[in-house]
Amino acid sequence: MGVILNIDHLTKDFYLHEQKKQIKSCSNISFQLQKGGFIGIVGTSGAGKSTVLRCIYRTYLATGGSVIYDSLAYGPLDLVTADERRIIHLRKAEIGYVSQFLSMLPRTTARQHVIDAALEAGFSQEEAARKAEEMLRYFRLSEELWELYPATFSGGEKLRLNLAHAMVKAPRLLLLDEPTASLDPDTKLLVRDLLLRLKEEGTSMLGIFHDLEFMDGLCDQVYNLSKGHFADKGGMS
């Protein structure tokens, strides 16, 4: 299958200008994600887990190291040094990101938010609308909510909309930052089933989780991040 993501000595520091203080968030993180594989990252709050994902997605610019992504569009590409034009294209067409927090254009309805994601992935208008509605139904977002602005949604509804937005693309690489944080048990099962389906279809995934039971049977490897470093790794059945 080969490697889709090769991370070598990834480091991210933050500099607090007012305090003139440098904070190390993660340091010398190295691992490989196989195509079609699923790696889970666990660790205490503040350990640097989300920083690793944001450096891969390039919402944070790494201080050091490399993140080599084997893209369809450009071949092997270092996401640390790639220009913004290529990063934007990869986010639209190849790399998905699910956050605990909903981020979207104002005055965009829930339905349109998911349609836009499908259009970015290259689907026609008709197909994008169909896939969006399928995904909204899958995550049990009531049709009464589809034409509303999600600012009034509950935390769980916003997270389900985030999941629909990211997963409608069936991206090659999917980054998951606590995708089950505010979900009820039934919705967690929906997420798990869809992740298993995406994995079977070849999507490669990297996820942060606190729910170890959710990860069991889903992740191929689990890394424990402690104080910005990988403490150990292991497999999961």
Automatic annotation (TrEMBL):
Region forming the signal peptide: none
Record keywords, A-Z: ATP-binding, Nucleotide-binding
Any one GO molecular-function label of the UniProt entry: ATP binding
PROSITE patterns membership: ABC_TRANSPORTER_2
SUPFAM superfamilies noted in UniProt: P-loop containing nucleoside triphosphate hydrolases
KW Nucleotide-binding (keyword) present: yes
InterPro entries on file: AAA+_ATPase, ABC_transporter-like_ATP-bd, ABC_transpr_LolD-like, P-loop_NTPase
Keyword ATP-binding assigned: yes
Name recorded for this polypeptide: ATP-binding cassette domain-containing protein
